Every structure is written in structure tokens, then in C-alpha cells.
Amino acid sequence: MKKSKINFIILIAVIILIIILKIFTSDKKRENFIIKEVKKGEIKVVINVNGTVMPQNRLVIKPAVAGRVEKILVKEGDFVKKGDILLYMSSSDRAAILDAARAKGEDLKEWEEIYKPVLIIAPISGQVIVKGVEPGQTVTQSDVLLVLSDRLIIKAQVDETDIGKVKKGQKAIIVFDAYPGSKIDGVVDHIYYESKVVNNVIIYEVDILPSFVPDYLRSGMSANVDIVKDYKKDILIISKNSIKNDRETGEYLIILNGKKREKRYIKTGISDNENTEIVSGANEGEKVLIIKQDFTGKIRKTDETKNPFVPQRPGRFSK
Fold first, then answer.
1. What is the pLDDT of residues 8-28, one digit of tens each?
2. In whole angstroms, what is the distance from residue 14 CA to residue 144 CA?
């Protein structure tokens, strides 16, 4: 009775061992891999930030004296030069005299020659972005007549963790939310020294100058900006997930040499979200093996003393 019981236990153990061996051997056969090729290309490393279209220098024009607007020579969107006459207005005294002469039926030309109108002249060259009054409107010295902008820029908000990577003169690519199909080149013009807190995040403002200002651009528009930190073209690149790392010896690739696999150590350069630059160690056109699942069936050294029949946590077997 005891002998048959022992034989039964041995049989069960053999069956379990056979099942485990089948799992290991079938996993070896189901090794899943893809092949990539070392090729020439470009890598662009960018810092993505949000921004708002704003005037670089916004100049508010107010009257020097209270009075009445007589004639406006510009409209929103017009470009003016420094020294151009923007509008005519009468002081309160002139307006009262002209109104009285008009009521009495007197010749206005004589009074208009005696009391000259006030000229509002453009102090800078730029674009009219706000027209705050209309002809005939009475204004005080605190009223806004016009607002000029010398040029529209994008004021970007850069997180403090990225500001150290931003330098004056770096190129940028600008896409406006209202016109997602249109891209405009730009350049980093100024990095502000004082930080701001936006939604509990410390940010630094950065001025981005567009290479040109399209007609559709308006102050207040939202923009998405890619500040180019690094850019290289005509370099050897490979998919990032094909690079393996040995802590002791460094980064390497598994190169396919015919049907053989070769472990090749490489030196890498810049990387983006998809590819990495190969500085040395591989040549254009070489095939690189990327093993997605590599079941070797070997037990890790740290697990050698563990019972193979006890369920283990994921990661027991080496990849």
C-alpha cells in the first residue's frame, strides 16, 4: 500500500515536471521580435510650451487735453509710421467756440483758423490694434483714444524645470489654435528674470518672435510653441527601444549578422521621443533585432534556492 502511494506521488511529480519543461520549451519557440534598420535621418529635441499672442510694446494713446474728437484718420489693423497724424480733436474751449459760431450762423473757417485743432501724432511705428473713440465723441484726459503695437509676439510660459534648457536665439515652431494647419518659424528673443506662479506652478515668461506676422494674427490668440533645444540632420539613428543597457559595459544593440546575433556596443547622442542618434558602433543599413519577449527558461540566480513548484511573482524568469 505504501509502495503504491509512493509510486503515485512520483508519477504526479514527473507529470508536473514534464508540464513545466513543455512551458519552457514552447516559450523559447514563441520568442517575439521585430527587426529595425540603422538609417540616416534627423532628430529634433523640443520643449513644448503654451503661449499667447501679445504686443511686444503696447502703447496706449490718451489726449493731452479734454475735448472732442473731430476726425479719425486710421482704423484697427492699419500700420502707421512714427510722426503720422492719427486724429484731430478740439480742446473743450475750441469745441465750445465752434459750437457757438455754428449756432449763430457765423463763418466757421475764421474761427477754425484762429483756434487750431489738437493733433494726435503716432509716437512709434506700428499697428493700430484698438480704436477707442468715434468722431464727435467727448473725451477726458483719462480716455483711451488709440492703442498701438510695434509688433505682435508670442509670450510663452515655460516651466521652471525646463527654463534651464531655453536659450536666447533658439529656433521655435509656432502653431496657433485658431489655425492648426499653419506653422510659423520663430526665435527666442527674451527670457524674463522674474518668475510667476500659474495654477500653483512656477513658470518663466519667454518672448518668441515670429519670422513674420500673418494677416490673420490677432492679439490674445492662443499658440502652441515647440522650442528647438537640439537638432541634427543626416545622422545615423535607430529606434530607442532597440537599445539595451548593460550597467557595467554600457549601451549595446543586437545586430543580425546573417543568421547570427552579435552584441555590439555603441555610443549614442541626442534622442527624441522615438529615435536615438548613433555616434559610433553601428553602420548604416545594419539590421537590429528588437526582442519583445525573450523567454529563456533560465531561473534567476536570486531564485535558484526557491521551490519551483511554488507560484512566484511576475519577473521570476529572466527575459
1. 677 777 788 787 776 655 544
2. 94
In the structure grid, which three cell numbers stand for residue 118, read together? 489738437
Residues 207-249: pLDDT tens digits?
Answer: 999 999 898 999 899 999 999 999 999 999 999 999 999 888 8
- CA dihedral for 261, 263, 266, 271, sign (positive or negative): positive
- Say which DSSP state 317 is in: B
Q: Round to the nearest angstrom and report the end-to-end CA distance of the chain.
A: 45
pTM above 0.70, yes or no: no
Residue recorded with cell 509710421: 81
- Measure the CA–CA gap between 62 and 226, rounded to whole angstroms: 38
CB atoms within 10 A of CB 149: 20
DSSP string covering 270-312, please? EE-SSEEEEEES--TT-EEEEEEE----PBPGGGTTS-TTS--
> Is residue 169 within 8 Å of residue 187, measured between CB atoms?
yes
Distance from C-alpha of 71 to C-alpha of 112, rounded to nearest angstrom: 14
Contact 215, 255 (CB under 8 A): no
Which of 306, 311, 300, 290 minimizes the C-alpha distance to 37?
A: 290
- Residue recorded with cell 546573417: 258
